[in-house]
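Ticket #4471: structure output looks truncated?

Reporter: J.K.
Steps to reproduce: submitted the chain below (409 residues) through the standard prediction queue, then opened the result file.
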Amino acid sequence: MRLFTKGSQSVKELTYHNIPFLQTMKTKTLTFLVFVVFVLPVCGQLNTVHNHYRPGDVLIKQQVEYVDPGSSGQNRVWDFSRLKTINDEYTLTYNLPSLEGDSVYLLGDKRYRKKDIGDNELIVGTEHNTMYYYHLTNDSLLQLGHENPSVKLEYTRPMALMRFPLNYGQSVSSAYTSKGLYSGTVDIQTQGTITTTADAYGKIILPSGDSLSPVLRVKTVQTIFDIADEDSYTTDETNNVGKQLETCRWYSKGYRYPVFETIRNINLSDSTEIFSTAFFFPPQDHLYLDTDPGNQALLDKLWKETEDDVTNTDNEQVKTVALEEIITCKMYPNPVESILNLEYELKQDAKVSFELYSIEGLPVKKIHAKPQKAGRYYETLDCTSLYPKNYVLRITANGMFVNEVIIKK
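Returned output as attached by the reporter:
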C-alpha cells in the first residue's frame, strides 16, 4: 500500500548546548556533536531533480522510539509498526538565504552575489531554532555550517553530504574541518570524515502500520575529533578518541524527503551510546507534493501500476477512462527556444488547462481551465524569457492529468 503524513527524546538533545556531557566539559577544546541534516528518495537512484531541497518546503515529522536500523543488503524488511510516538509535532523547513538589498545572499558570515548563484543552489534548513547552510555545486551537496542561539559553526572545509546521482551500492566520502564559537566565548574546532552510502533496499512498515516498497536506505557515518588549537591536531595518542554520529534514512520513490530516519551517537573508544532517537515522516504530511509535479508524476505512475495489477487479477472486465480517451496533444518544438505550440483534440466535452512548472515544482506559466466542446484546438506558451533547463508541463482534462518534460534551449 502506498500513501502520503507529523516528529521526536527531545530534539534539544541534538544541539550542542543541550548535550549534557558537553555542558560539563571544562577544557577549552570541546567535542561538538554535529546533527547532519541532508536529504536524498529511492529506489535505485537519488537525484537532484527529485531529491534536492526546495525553498518553501515544510516537513512535519514525529519523534518515535529509537530502533536498531538493522544490517545492510538487498530485500530487507524493516518493521517499525510498534514504535511509540514521543513527540508528534516537529517541523523542518527549507528556504532561500536572506538577501542584503536585492543582489547579495547572506549565508552565515559569507556573502554570495545573487547573479552568480543558480536556482536553489543555496538553501537554509531550519529545525529546532537551528539554521543549517547548504550549497549544491557540481552535483555535490555540501554543508557549509550552522548556527543557533548558543552555537555558530563554519565548516572551513565543507562536508560533502551527497553526490548526485546516488544508486544502491554507491558511496561518497570526504574529510572536513570546522571552527566556531559556543556561547559566544568558547572556541570550537573539529575535524573528521563523513561517508554516505546507499547500503540497503527493501520494504518498510511504518509506525502508522502502512507499508512502502521498495525503499532505499542511505546510511551516513560522521566521525568527530577535537582540534586542540590552530597548529596542533590532537590524535588517539593524546586521548582524543572522538565520537561517531550514525544516521540512517529511508527514501521511497515519489517523495523528495525521507519517510523514516534513525540517529545514534557513540564514543569511538568503547562504542558506548551518547544518545539515540528516530523520526517518522508520515507520507500524508509531505504537503509539498501539491507543488512538486516531478514526484507527483512518479506517485501517479506507481498508483497506476498498482491499479493495473489489481485489474489484471480481477476476473471481471472493468471499463476505465484514460486521459487519451479524452484528449490527445502535440507539443512542438521540444526543445523550445521561444513559442511552445500546443495542438490538441478533445474527443468529448472537457474542461482543459495547461500548467508549466520548474523542476523544483514552482509554477511558471498557466493557461487557465476552461470548458470546451469536442473538437480541435490550438494554444501557445511563450517560453522566451525562461532560463535554459528542463520544465514540466501538466495537461489536465476533466480532473485527469499527465506531466510531460519540456526542454528550454
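Triage note (M.O.): checked the attachment and the full C-alpha cell line is present. The CA atoms of residues 311 and 318 lie 8 Å apart.
Status: closed, working as intended.
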